[in-house]
Amino acid sequence: MANDDIALMAHLIRRAGFGAGREELEARAATGYEATVQELIHPETQHDVDLDLMERYLPEYGEGTALESLQQTWVYRMINTGRPLQEKMALFWHGLLCTGFAKVDNGPITMDYLDLFREHGLGSFKTLLVEMSKHPTMVYYLDNVDNHRGSINENFGRELLELFSMGVGTDGRDNYTEDDVRAVSRAFTGWNLEPTIPVFPYGRCKWRFRYDPTDHDDGEKTFLGKTGRWNGEDIIDILFEQPATARFICRHLYNFFVADEPQVPAWKDTPPRDMEAIRILEKAFVDNGFDMRPVLHTLFNSEFFKDALFLKMKSPADVVIGTMRLVKEHQEVKPGLFPIMLETTFMGQDLLNPPSVEGWHTGREWIDSGTLVERINFVADHVGDRSLPGIRLIVDRMSNGTSVMSPEEFVDSCLDLIGPVEVQKDTRSALIDHSANGGELRRATEEERGDFSRRVTEMLQLIVSTAEYQYT
Amino acid sequence: MATEQRERVIVVLSLSGGNDGLNTLIPYSNANYYDYRPTLGIAEDQVLRINDEVGFHPSMVEMKRMYDEGHMAVIQGVGYPKPNRSHFRSMDIWHTCETDKIVDEGWLGQTIRELDPNAENVLSGVNFGRGLPRAMVASGVPVSSVGDLSTYGLLTGIEQDQRIQALEVFSRMYAPAIGAGPVTDYIWETGRAALKGADILKVAPEMYSSTVEYGNNAIANGMKSIAQVHLADLGTRILYTTSPYNVFDTHANEAAMHSRLLGEVSGAVADFNDDLREHGRGEEVILLVFSEFGRRARDNGGGTDHGTGSVCFVIGDQVKGGLYGEYPSLEEGDLEDGGDLLHNVDFRSVYATMLEKWIGLESRPIVRGNFELLGFL
User: Fold this and answer.
1) Structure confidence by residue, pLDDT tens digits, B119-163
2) pTM of the predicted model, to two decimals?
3) Do B173 and A466 touch (CB under 8 A)?
4) What is the DSSP letter of B358?
5) Which chain A residues in 426-465 lie under 8 Å from chain B, judged by CB atoms?
6) Is residue B328 reached through a cis peptide bond, with omega within 30 degrees of 0 on the bond before it?
7) Which of A326, A446, B9, B233 has minimal Cβ neighbours within 10 Å of its Cβ?
8) What is the ipTM of this complex?
9) CA distance A269 to chain B (A)
C-alpha cells in the first residue's frame, strides 16, 4: 500500500472524524478513499455508540444535570462513535450556532440541542436554522423569551444575521442594516417557551418551544428590501436567497475542515484564503438546496482538501479525542474519563460552554503558554505509556526486526506510525541527532528490545511536543 | 527597615461554589437571622464579635485577628443588579464585569495588558490551578497557569535524567534557524516562553524560606505558591488561585463543611500575610477574597441554596481595615425575590477601587462603567 494513501486517509479521518490508530487507517485505505467518504457522509449506515450500555454502567453520564456529566457523555461519544462525521458535524454546529451552559444551565435541553445537530447536521441547513430558532436552548440563550410584540429584544435577531447566516459583511460591504435587525427581531416575536417548571424543587426539566400568535408582531416589515408581514420562517427563506449566506457557511466549513481562516469578525474585510475553493463549495451548497451532505462530499473529494494536510491547528477536542483514539483508551465504559474530559477545558475548550455566542476563536488562538503546556504534557503522558494498546501496537511494529536501526530510519518510522506526521527539516535533524546520541538502536535480544521500546516511546513523546504536531 | 520601591501586586482568592455570607459575617444580634437559620444559625456566644451587630464565624479566628489589627476591609452586601444564581454565569459576571452580555475578556487579563502592554514578562500574570479563570483571559496576554509549582513544567511525565535531555531537544526544536510561517513561528515563540516561564518559576520554591507553616489543604497550597512567586521577585503583578471547584456549594451538610472551609481560608490568608511580613514585603500586596454569590437567607434544613448579596474581603498591610457597605436588611419584606439579601455595594466598585487606588489604572474600561470608589485604600 502506498504511504501516500495512508497519509491521505489519516488526513481524512482526522478532519472528518477524530483520527484513528494505524490498523484502522490501513483497513480504510484498503477499502478506498471514496468508499470511506461515502461511509462518513452516511452515518445512518453505521452503528452509533451503545447508549444503553453507557448509561447502565455510568449512570451519571446519562443523568445530564451537571455540565461535567454532559461533557463526559459527549467526549465518550466522540471517542467511540461509529459515525465520526456525525459527531464532528455536531461539534461544527455547536461552535457555530452557539449556546452556552453558563447561561442556559439546563442539562436535558442542552443535550437535546446537541441531538438536533446529530439529526440535521448533515441535512438541509435551512431546516436546521428553522429548528434551531425553535429550540428552547437557543430561544433562552439569546433572549428570544424576552422578545415581545411591541417590546422587542434584538439579541437573537442580530445574531441570526451576524453569526448564523450571512455575517456582518461580504467583500467589504455590509450585509444588513440596523433596520433589518429590528425587522428580524419583530418577525421572531412570539417564538417563545411554554411556562417552565421551576428548578427548585423540581430539578431541571426539558423546556418546550411554543409559538404564541398573540405575542407575534404580525405587522408589515421590510427585510433586505422585501416587504411583507414576515414571520420567522419567511426571514429564513429570504436569508437563503442571499449569496452572503452561502459564502458565510462555506467559509465556516472551509475553516473547520480544510485550513484555518482569520477569525469571523475579520471576514467582512478579509477575502477567503482560497476563493476558488469557496466558490466550489458555494455552488454545491446552492445547487443541492442547502443540503450539507453533497457539500461535504464535494469538499472531501476536492483537490484543495486533499492538498490541505496540516494546515489547521488542532482544537482541544481534536487533541483529547484524537489521543484517546490513537492510544486506544476509554474505548469501553469504565471509570476515569472525568479527568480526560477536563483536559479539553484546561486546553481552552469548555465543551457545551463556549466563552460567548461567537464560539471559540480557532487556529493559533487555541495556543498560549498555558494551553501549550497542557497539550504537550497530556499527549506526551499518554504516548509514553506502553501499557496502552495503541502505543503497544506502535512499539511492537517498531520492534519487529532484528537489524540495528539507523537513527534516520528510527525517527522516520516513529513519525510514520504516529501519524504520519510531517516535520520541518530542522526538527527532524534534532530528533535524529538525539537518537544518534542515545547509542545504537538494537532490538535483537529481549534486553535490547526493552531499552529499544523505551526509546520508541521517548521519541513519540518528543514528536508530540513539536510545533508540527499541534497541526491537523 | 528601608525597602526599595517595589511594584504593587494584586492577589485574588476565589471561593468557588457560592460562599454563605450570612454564616461568614454573622448578624448575631438580629432575631431574623435565627429565624431564617433554625439549623445552621451560629449561636450568639460562639460568634467572634467585631461590634454589637456582627461577628465572624467561630472558625475564622485568624481573620478576626487580622481584622483587629486593622488591615482587613470587610465589604458587606456585595453583589450586582439582577443577580444570576447559576455558578457559571455569576462567576462569569464577576470575571468579566459584564452583567448583561456574554463577553470573553476578564478584568485581570485586561489589567495585565495595561501593566505589560508588550507582553515582555511571561510571568506578569500567574494563575495557580488547571485552566485559566476567565478573569485572567484577554487576547494577547500570556498568563502562566500552574497546577503545582513544585512539578510545573514541560514534559513532566518523562523521568528526570531523560527529561533533561528531552528538554534540550525541545529547546532546539523550538528555536530553529529558519522560520516556518507566522503560525508555526508563533508556536515556537510560545513554547520558548513556556519553557522560560517554567524555568524561572522553578526558582521560586528553591529561593523560598520561611518560618510560616501553611496548612495542608488546597487553599493553603495555593496561597503558599503565590507567596513563593511573589517573594522570588519575578515581576509578577497579578496572582490568582481558586479553592477546589465548587466546594462552597453547601446545599447539604453545611455546618461541618462550611466550618472547615472557613477555617482553611482564614488560616491560609493569615499565614500568607504573616509570610509576607516576615520578609518585610507585606506592604506590596493586596488580597481580594470573593465568591460568585451568597446563599439564601433561609437554610434548607441541612444546607443553603444559591442566593445573592454576600461579603468579600480585601486584605493587606496598606488596606484601611473596617466594615464597608451596609449589612443587607434581614426584614422579610426587604429580601430580594422573597429570600435573598439585597446587595448595596456593586462588586465593580471593589475592583475599581483596587485598580485606581492601588495600581493607578483607569478603571472604567476594565470594569465596564463608572463605579463609586470605596475607602478601603
Assistant:
1) 889 899 999 987 788 899 888 788 888 888 888 899 998 888 889
2) 0.85
3) yes
4) I
5) 426-427, 430-431, 434, 437, 458, 461-462, 465
6) no
7) A446
8) 0.93
9) 20
